[in-house]
Amino acid sequence: MKHKRNTEAVVAFAKKKKEETAEKVEQAIKQLIKQNERINFNTVTSAAGVSKSYLYNQPELRKRIESLRQKQNKVASPKNIKKNMNDENQDSLIQVFRERIRELEKENKQLKDEIKRINGKLYESF
Predict the structure, then answer these.
(1) Same domain? 17 vs 69
(2) Based on the domain organization, do 43 and 72 belong to the same domain?
(3) Which controlled-vocabulary keywords does the entry list (predicted)?
(4) Is residue 53 included in any domain, yes or no?
(5) Shared domain check, 90 and 62
(6) What DSSP designation does 77 have?
(7) pLDDT digits (tens, 9 = 90+) for 35-92
(8) Looking at the domain assignment, is residue 93 inside a domain?
(9) Structure confidence at residue 47 (pLDDT)
(10) Domain span at residue 98?
């Protein structure tokens, strides 16, 4: 008599555990993005409570982490920061500089008027 092993429960449990772990990793990645944290295997491992080998052995998760890491590296490069700063702040910087020029021109005019007044007093005293 041959006995058939019933492994359905074990397979179902393993599948459920795999799905839960993948969801835990996904939530950790979303949280890291929301908190504007670096995305890499170390930070995801810490946030999700899984091993690095697990992340490396899951092709979809590995690809996602590598993609996010690459995007962050591009965004964080000084060249891109400077470009974004210039694009985003150009108008406000121009406005600040124009206001500063107006202030300096006003101060310059006041000083010139003061010099004329003092020269007039000096001329009268002779």
Answers:
(1) yes
(2) yes
(3) Coiled coil
(4) yes
(5) no
(6) S
(7) 888 899 999 999 999 999 999 999 998 998 998 888 887 765 555 555 555 555 677 7
(8) yes
(9) 93
(10) 84-126
Position of tokens 């930070």? 43
Half-sphere exposure of 43 (CA within 13 A, CB side): 18
Query: Stretch 24-29: mean pLDDT, rounded?
Result: 91
Sequence-ordered alpha helix ranges (H) in 49-77:
52-57, 59-76
User: Token pair for residue 20?
Assistant: 């839960």
Asked, for residue 25, whether it belongs to a domain, the answer is: yes
Tell me the two tokens of residue 106: 């006003």
Do 61 and 25 contact (CB within 8 A), yes or no? Answer: yes
The pLDDT assigned to 79 comes to 56
Model's pTM, two decimal places?
Answer: 0.53
Q: How many CB atoms lie within 10 A of CB 32?
A: 21
Residue type, 102: R
Residue 95 has pLDDT above 80, yes or no: no
Is 37 a domain residue?
Answer: yes
Same domain, 72 and 88: no
